[in-house]
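User: As part of a screening pipeline, I want to sanity-check one entry by hand. Below is the sequence and the SMILES for NAP. Please return the complex as structure tokens so I can compare it with the automated output.
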Amino acid sequence: MNTAPRRSTPTLNIIGAGRVGRTLGRLWQDAGVFTLGDVAARSAASARAAVAFIGAGRATHSLTGLAPADVYLLSVPDREIAATARIIAAQPGLPEKAIAVHCSGALASQELAALGALGWRVASAHPALSFADPERAVAQFSGCLCGLEGDSEARALLGGVFTGIGARCFELAAEHKLLYHAGSVFASNFTTVLLDVALRAYRESGLDDATAMALLEPLVRNAIDNSLRLGPAAALTGPAARGDTELVARQAQAVARWDSLAADAYRPLSTLATRLAARSKR
Ligand SMILES: NC(=O)c1ccc[n+]([C@@H]2O[C@H](COP(=O)([O-])OP(=O)(O)OC[C@H]3O[C@@H](n4cnc5c(N)ncnc54)[C@H](OP(=O)(O)O)[C@@H]3O)[C@@H](O)[C@H]2O)c1
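Assistant: Here is the complex for your manual check:
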């Protein structure tokens, strides 16, 4: 018989029970990683819905009177993190030692400075997944990459609790977080913006929606598949990659006659394409 005392699981308060808070709460609850304490949202109804989704915790819409916990997850929107940390730090009856973490991709653990000033360990943990639908995010979470940054003690605990729900963790430096996040903005958000510009250019050229979409789909799929398979330098095609500067200049003028903002994007993107092509030749 094993007579060693059972280590109790650490306690967790979730402050901000939206898409990320609910998803992580449910995953940690199902894996028995934490004992859930308070689950806070702005509205009482949202906090209750989060507790129902997670299957544990005490719903609250107030940050006063939170039960002490080992870990505080501040999964509020980015712009609310620092202010929320200050409100929590001003509450009476806080534990002497605790870990506070937020989930922003762009912001570093410095946002939690008010809690760090109490002697708490602070960190950020960015799970790189779209949490738009928590039920779906729970199902898709396994294998999710998670960037950790902050105090070493906090990173050690977070590495364990995120790995415990199937994440693959990697380390990020605080000073690089904005640039790291910009990488995802370029890859994900700007791809969508460029697809919209492409569709509008097709329509402006007289194509109907169905033809425009049919034209776009294989182009986009091939560009992404080849870039992921061969690397962007080897995958690049088009006039800038061929060094056809005259065509690039004439095309820039045609775009400018249609949409000056699209032309403002076309020119530096062509320069970046030319540099990428030069790298490929080297
Ligand atoms: N969404 C994603 O795909 C994703 C991916 C990776 C990382 N993240 C990061 O995760 C964090 C949370 O994002 P999210 O998408 O889960 O946000 P969200 O769905 O908008 O949820 C935010 C939660 O915070 C609550 N809240 C807002 N202001 C508050 C305040 N002042 N005090 C207490 N609670 C407050 C909201 O309450 P109500 O429910 O009552 O409105 C809501 O429950 C952000 O740092 C974000 O950058 C998001």
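Points to compare against the pipeline: The pocket of NAP is lined by residues 15-21, 40-43, 46, 75-78, 80, 84, 102-105, 126-127, 130-131 (CB under 6 Å). DSSP finds twelve helices and eight strands in the chain.
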